[in-house]
């Protein structure tokens, strides 16, 4: 059973017992000692595999090289044995820095799971900080599973109810509380301690969305990792008896009053009742393609159109392409963002990842999408691609916006209708509601597809024996001992990672 918790702003002279505050309600969910259901356990295993997949593909990319070097500059802290760093066999770091390095690796390619409702989210971002703490303190697989279930539950509950982006607050502000809550579950902390950590986790992770606007920088990958790192530190601080701003959500000078909908705001946050299992992860979905989630279905549609109408790949045959879609797709990754960089062939990979005109063009011409090749400067700068790219625009469609926000899984949609006008006057119209890999899509992802994705991305950088070792281990996740949890890592091929060549900084 789901309980709706009402949230509003309270004046300082109004009485709001902490037991009625949202942060306390979230902490109660985290402290509730329910076991994860079998299908939830299976999905958690899928997502740990998924995170390892995209991290493997990122091991030599600049943001990961830099964040890994930062983590290695911070040796294991007291109180535990440290946490592993993706790609490395024996090296360990303090858990907050391992969460940082591994969080960047997971997020860099924009290629792991997603959940979209009132806000956007990549709930798999909860896994690196929770896993890092589990390895540091010696938690077993059962505890890790329960903690990950909490991280997903809390983040997705907040995402269902509280919109950040319309106030230009980055969506990672929901990760600080959710990762803090997940770590609280992992450690078996009491409600009061988790409450303080959640408040601190939120207070330190509210940043603007400029990281996803204009010329998008490498900070896009670092932002959720920073939230995870702050969550680890928030829990440590709360465990030492230190308190945090309160009430963090409802206060007169709190997050809602000054950063979100203001003093007159009200929300209804859905939370599982006491004793109810945490099942939110089952409502999330992963990516087949390395691109913003709203691009997933449209890549699949472009792939289909490429096969049915190969003439569309020739820019000279096309007069105009209009993608009728949701408000979010139009204004964040479409022409409605009014970002000239979305049509710039010299733009960064992070910017191209947030340009549906570019993504649709390349998928239409190539009949598919590749996490590296589709973003290269040579691919983006191809003359015929630039010509076709500039003929692609987006338009908001009220029905697609309604379906985007629908609570009915059968009609919730992240796609759109594409209208293509050819030079000879012919018009082609086609549409897609959800990505092929979506649970309701043409080819839904199951364990087989997660493993296939892992093999595809890991084979260039991991030895076959390492691939098999990791897959055997992770699929026994709830049964793992503390020592086996410490082996939940991927180790790169010898000589792939040149640690000495990493950029130097302050540490």
From TrEMBL:
Keywords, ordered alphabetically: Lyase
Domain MmgE/PrpD C-terminal stretches: 289-477
Gene3D superfamilies registered for this protein in UniProt: 2-methylcitrate dehydratase PrpD
EC number(s) given by UniProt: 4.2.1.79
Domain MmgE/PrpD N-terminal: 20-267
Root EC class: lyase
Reactions accelerated catalytically: (2S,3S)-2-methylcitrate = 2-methyl-cis-aconitate + H2O
GO molecular function: 2-methylcitrate dehydratase activity
InterPro entries with a match to the protein in the record: MmgE/PrpD_sf, MmgE/PrpD_sf_1, MmgE/PrpD_sf_2, MmgE_PrpD, MmgE_PrpD_C, MmgE_PrpD_N
Family: Belongs to the PrpD family.
Assembly description: Monomer.
Name of the protein in question: 2-methylcitrate dehydratase
Taxonomic classification: Bacteria, Bacillati, Actinomycetota, Actinomycetes, Micrococcales
């Amino acid at each position: 059973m789901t309980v709706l918790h009402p949230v509003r702003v309270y004046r300082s002279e109004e009485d709001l017992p902490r037991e009625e505050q949202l942060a306390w309600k979230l902490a109660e969910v985290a402290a509730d000692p329910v076991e994860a259901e079998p299908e939830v356990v299976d999905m958690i295993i899928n997502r740990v595999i998924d995170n390892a997949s995209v991290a493997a593909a990122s091991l030599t990319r600049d943001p990961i090289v830099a964040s890994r070097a930062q983590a290695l500059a911070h040796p294991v802290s007291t109180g535990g044995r440290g946490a592993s760093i993706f790609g490395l066999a024996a090296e360990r770091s303090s858990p907050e820095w391992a969460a940082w390095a591994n969080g960047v690796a997971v997020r860099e390619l924009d290629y792991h799971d997603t959940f979209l409702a009132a806000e956007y989210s990549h709930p798999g971002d909860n896994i690196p900080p929770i896993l890092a703490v589990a390895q540091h303190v010696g938690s077993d697989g059962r505890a890790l599973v329960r903690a990950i279930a909490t991280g997903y539950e809390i983040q997705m509950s907040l995402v269902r109810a509280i919109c950040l982006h319309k106030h230009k607050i980055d969506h990672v502000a929901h990760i600080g509380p959710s990762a803090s809550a997940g770590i609280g579950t992992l450690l078996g902390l009491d409600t009061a301690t988790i409450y303080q950590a959640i408040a601190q986790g939120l207070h330190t992770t509210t940043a603007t969305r400029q990281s996803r606007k204009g010329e998008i920088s490498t900070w896009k990958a670092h932002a959720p990792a920073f939230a995870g790192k702050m969550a680890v530190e928030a829990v440590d601080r709360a465990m030492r008896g230190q308190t945090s701003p309160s009430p963090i959500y409802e206060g007169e000078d709190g997050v809602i009053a000054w950063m979100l909908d203001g003093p007159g705001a009200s929300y209804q946050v859905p939370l599982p009742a006491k004793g109810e299992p945490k099942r939110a992860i089952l409502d999330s979905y992963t990516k087949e393609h390395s691109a913003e989630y709203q691009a997933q279905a449209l890549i699949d549609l472009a792939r289909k159109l490429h096969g049915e109408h190969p003439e569309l790949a020739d820019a000279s045959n096309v007069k105009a392409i209009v993608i009728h879609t949701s408000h979010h797709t139009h204004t964040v990754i479409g022409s409605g963002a009014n970002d000239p960089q979305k049509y710039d062939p010299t733009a960064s990979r992070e910017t191209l990842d947030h340009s549906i005109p570019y993504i649709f063009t390349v998928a239409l011409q190539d009949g598919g999408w590749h996490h590296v090749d589709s973003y290269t400067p040579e691919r983006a700068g191809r003359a015929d691609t630039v010509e076709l790219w500039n003929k692609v625009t987006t338009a908001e469609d009220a029905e697609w916006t309604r379906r985007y926000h629908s609570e009915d899984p059968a009609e919730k949609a992240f796609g759109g209708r594409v209208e293509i006008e050819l030079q000879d006057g012919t018009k082609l119209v086609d549409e897609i509601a959800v990505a092929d890999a979506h649970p309701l899509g043409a080819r839904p992802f199951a364990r087989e597809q997660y493993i296939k994705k892992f093999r595809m991305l890991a084979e260039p950088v991991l030895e076959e024996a390492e691939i098999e070792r990791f897959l055997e281990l992770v699929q026994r996740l709830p049964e793992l001992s503390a020592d086996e949890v410490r082996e939940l890592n991927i180790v790169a091929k010898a000589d792939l990672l040149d640690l000495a060549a990493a950029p130097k900084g302050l540490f």
